[in-house]
Fold:
Amino acid sequence: MGKHYEHVKGTVDFYPPQSSLFQNIVKEARNLFILYGYEEIILPILETEAVFAKGVGSTSDIVEKQIFRIQDKDIVLRPEGTAQVVRSYIENSCSKQSDVHKFFYIGPMFRGERPQKGRLRQFHHIGAEVFGVENPALDGEVIALAYMVLQKSGIKNITLKLNTLGCAQDKEKFSARLQKDLQAHHAKLCELCQKRVSVNPLRVLDCKDPSCKKIVASLSLGKGHLCDECQDHFHKVTETLKALSVPFEYDPFLVRGLDYYTNTVFEFISSALGAQDACGAGGRYNNLVKNLGGPDVPAIGFALGVERMLLLREDFKSPPVVNVFVAYTGETLASEARTLVYELRRQGVSADMSYKPKSLKSQLRVAQRLGAVCTVIFGEEERKEGCLTLRNMRESTQQKIAVEDIIPALKNKI
Ligand SMILES: [Zn+2]
Ligand SMILES: [Zn+2]
Structure:
């Protein structure tokens, strides 16, 4: 026996029916994006580290702990989509072609840290990014779209948490006040947060350490740091969500651990997922395009974690692998059966048959496993009578049908 190989830790093989559920989620998302006027963007898995250090932030978990480096070059496996889409948007001078761009992407992302429950090395994001629109109605629409993608994928019991960080100046004000408030509890913060207080106090709000969580919970956060314009923006976002019947909870503690967010931030959570409870998140990032060397263009986006969505869909019933299974008795009837299989496929009806002679009973078992709606039986008896047996697999009934009528009869049943 040869060596037995195992998958890389933190990666997942999607076997049927999980792969079918995966594709189902992707298909529903793609249909919705198209309905909302988004265009697909397909980007490489490899990207330079600087894009994320500058984009996501060099003190974010993603860059500090999770980046997946290749050799010792500046090249990394992309950890998220937003900074990369922005890089591509700038590089391709998109803003010169049109003032508004709506992109979506679906693909794998990578994190290099030690894998743990709910945290994979390779995972998949369904994401969207919109460039060139300041209007708060868009924030509402983008959030509603993400919510629709989750709902269309059959995910229930989703809570939408919503907050605003304000513009860069508001965020700075908020950060300074937070820093002052946290300094008072400095000794009780975890080691990492003691450092964060001076470098990036917002990150303390995301800390999972119980002592930090207790301190954070005692803080009184609100919208005091917001300028009038940002207050108004947020109000209009909530108005749009109400108009679109998307339920939300205002959460002043929601800041998201990435540097690029300004104004609207949101997160979709489900209690079914345990500690790693977010299955998607996003927000506005009005300064990122400029910070990455592009024009001054506002933007907003979100990303949903496909693997987390899969966990929330355990009730999924996969569609049939083929609609029609063609069974035959004896080698002599195999070629006639094969002709029917080919003809069905040519006419757009999924069909399959056994590649070697088997008992009728075991062929019916295969048909069952494939979820076939109908099985057509080529037997000696049928041959003598010039007909075929059509078995309805769901009702376990069967009837004899003239050879020339079989395809219309099958099309009628599926
Ligand atoms: Zn502001
Ligand atoms: Zn902490």
Summary: Residues 18-167+227-311 form a domain with the BirA Bifunctional Protein; domain 2 fold (CATH 3.30.930.10). The first helix runs from residue 18 to 35.
